[in-house]
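so im writing up the methods section and need the Trehalose 6-phosphate phosphatase record in one place, dumping it here so i stop losing it
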Amino acid sequence: MRGSDHGHGRDDRPLNAESAWRLTADRANECVLFFDFDGTLAPVADDPTAVRPVPRALSAIDALARVVRRVAIVSARPVDFLRDRLGAADVDLYGLYGLEHSHGSGPTVTEPAALPWVPAMADLADRARAELPAEILVEYKRLSVALHYRTAPELAGEVERWGNAEAERLGLRTQTGRMVLELKPPVDRDKGLVIGEAVASAGCAWYFGDDVSDLKAFAALRDRQERDPSFFGVCVAVANPETGQAVAGAADLTFDSPEALGDFLDDAAASVR
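--- predicted struct ---
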């Protein structure tokens, strides 16, 4: 499926991805494109370190970065991971839900309020490896710890109980995701705040996501459009059985997979070169 409309926008919204993109191409120089990474640009894998973006999506992002105002990746991954996977593409990177960021080839900047939590996160990762079953993959990200139970979904309850208890003990926040529970510092940064700030001066924006953390990004685009009817925002979901309708039902458009999204992006980039 190339893209389908769920009818969550205004009545004058385009009904499919191609017509939405035609409107975007007319104002490309004022448009920002935001992408989640895992499950959106790259298929989810049992081993999170093995994840790679879909080739057509990767080449399309490089091309789109030359014709729209800005392309940004907004992810739970660290900036260094994103930079490694995306290569030389001139894009903005917001890692760890915005706790760190870089613009183009610039340095990685960490949210100052999060830095004191680095030692606690390292200790938490060690505790998780020692106390949780061996089937749980513990991903230490310097400013957060993700507990993956994709290969052992029957342990979800145990992971959630352990993670929630540790979050309460240490004063952390939790973020649920696709077969993962993430613990992070109590710092006010999330995808919605990142998007809200980044679109303040834009006339157009798309956000592409697949998980529940992306709902805040969708809400930020909706809020921007409500405050300025001339702003054109499009919320796109990459459908998957794990989030079901929670994300797809909140989007304007859906694609069946990262591969299908890559095909669309490749065509979109070619249309404005």
